[in-house]
Here is the input.
Amino acid sequence: MAIPAIQWYPGHIAKAEKSLLAQLKRVDVVLEVRDARIPLATQHPHVAEWIFGKNKVLVLNRIDMIPAEARHAWTEWFRAGGEEPYFTDAQHGKGIEAVAAAAQEAGLQMNQRRSDRGMLPRPVRAVVIGFPNVGKSALINRLLNRRVVDSARRAGVTRQLRWVRISDQIELLDAPGVLPLKLHDQEAALKLAICDDIGEASYDNQRVAATLVDLLQQLQAGRSLESRYGLALGDMSGEAYLQTLAAQRYKADHERTACQLLNDFRKGVLGPIALELPHG
Here is the structure.
């Protein structure tokens, strides 16, 4: 029997995408937020097309959850492609000032163009976009130095678009997380599920937890599992590891075991782990 594909496209996401596209016409700069653990899987395939011609600030959030060497590798990789990544830990307010300065710089460029055409300056209009649960609302709250938008480590908290003023110079649009209409890349979809960047109704916990273990095996990060659970990964498959762990520690409850493993990864209990590293 074929394993069902991971898909999630509830009505509010479809509606949000339509509203976002309408608002993008009014925006000067785009803050694209991705998950630092999976920067490629959290790259929306249509963002480049949507924001063509606009200034973009690339924000890689959850920097606290990946090793320093992964950060260095991604910095080099993005710079080689002509893009400067800004790393943040929005939950704890790290890296926020650099993001604000980058948005401010984009605003100066926009107002210079207005001045050249004989127009008066105005506040820069920025939008924060990205997949659900990558930390957009936490970033906005940090930029504002106060809680104005709901923020939680689960997908789908932001449901509608709203403008908030950061300062006399910047106005910010908080947009709900936007997913592609179809998740064609199932490998990427599984990474989204592992990192909780997609609605949990769309996937099977045991399948996703087994995939996480397989990924840790590929990344040679199995030691984090042994130190947490006292069970060496060895050459076990993800599925076999899950079954063995369930038998040893969780009364053969595979669902509970899967949820525990996923929660431990998502909370950083297994240590800083990058599930993606630059190609080549």
About this structure: The mean pLDDT is 86. The domain at 11-174 is CATH 3.40.50.300 (Rossmann fold). Residues 96-116 form the longest helix (21 residues). The CA atoms of residues 162 and 174 lie 6 Å apart.
